[in-house]
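Researcher: Structure prediction, please.
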Amino acid sequence: MKKILENSRGWFYLYVGTQVLLFVFDILFSQFMAGAGEDRAKTLMISAAIVTLAVYLYNVLYLVYRLVYLYRDTKNRGRWTVLTMIYIVCELLTFTGVDLGLMGLVVSPVALILWIVCLVHDYGIITGVREQ
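Model: Predicted structure follows.
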C-alpha cells in the first residue's frame, strides 16, 4: 500500500488523464446524442452516467489522496487544504446540477481557477521543483 501511495507521479497523470477523458467523452457524447434515436439515446445516457460517475469517483479519490498524503509535509498545508476543500464543494455543486442562478457564474470559474492552481502546485511537489 505504501508503494502505491508513494507513486505520486502516477496518481497525478492518471488524474489529468481522467479529466481529459471526461472532456473528450462529453464532446463525443453530445455528438452521438444529436443523431441518436429514442432507444439509443437511453443506452447512451446510461453509459454516460456510468463513465461520468467512474471519473468523478476517481477524482474524489485523488482529492482525498492530495489532502491526506501529498500535502503531508508541505509548507502552508492548511491553505492548500482549504483551497482543495473549496474546489471539492464547487465541483459537487456543479456536478449535482443545483440551480445556483447567478452564483453559477461565480462557482464554475472559481472551480476552474482552483483546479489549475492546485494542479500546478501538485506538479511542483511531485517533480521536486516546489519545496515540500
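Model: Residues 124 and 130 are 5 Å apart (CA to CA).
Researcher: Thanks, that helps.
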